[in-house]
Structure formats: C-alpha cells, structure tokens
Amino acid sequence: MPVVKCDVPSSSVLSRDLIRNAHFHDSYCAPLAHPELGIVDIFFALFGHTPLWMKLLPIVRNTLAGLFGLQVPTVGDHETRGEMRVQRR
Fold first, then answer.
1. CA 76, 78, 84 angle in degrees (round to 5)?
2. How many CA atoms lie within 13 A of 7 on its CB side?
3. Are 54 and 82 in contact (CB under 8 A)?
4. Are 57 and 78 spatial neighbours (Cβ–Cβ below 8 Å)?
5. pTM of the predicted structure, to 2 decimals
6. How many domains does the chain have?
7. How far apart are CA 89 and CA 82, in angstroms?
8. What is the pLDDT of residues 46-55, one digit of tens each?
C-alpha cells in the first residue's frame, strides 16, 4: 500500500495561515483497505489499541505496590477496563 506525501486537502478546515506558519505540517495520502468504513471506525483502527508495554506498566506497578502492602486492583480489572470499546452503529 503506497503512502505518498501530498498537499493539505483543499477541503480541509484548517486555516492556510496556521498551516503555513506551523513548525510541522506534513500531509500524506494512502488508499483505504476498507473504503466502506466511516471515519470513527478508521480512527479506532489506527488509534484504538494500546501497545503491550502500556498494558504491562500498570501490572508491574501494581505488583510492586502489592509487595509493599498497598491494596491494588487485580490483573483482571486492568483487562476488563482496557477492553472497553465504542459501540458501533
């Protein structure tokens, strides 16, 4: 799937002055593998997951805190909260 650099789309609501004065203003285009998806579905496909290391950090923190006698949630509590999803229409 080719990703190519392109101009900011003419239909963008971003101010041209703000874009021109920005320190970082790249725009890229790529074909959609599933063009039937809406923008919310595309957003969650790109950003709706948590990397493994971010899932493990609270578990390690709570394990260490538990060793010092602090009350901490169980691993199952983290998994349940981490799996909440937006309902599809």
1. 105
2. 5
3. no
4. no
5. 0.42
6. 1
7. 21
8. 888 888 999 8
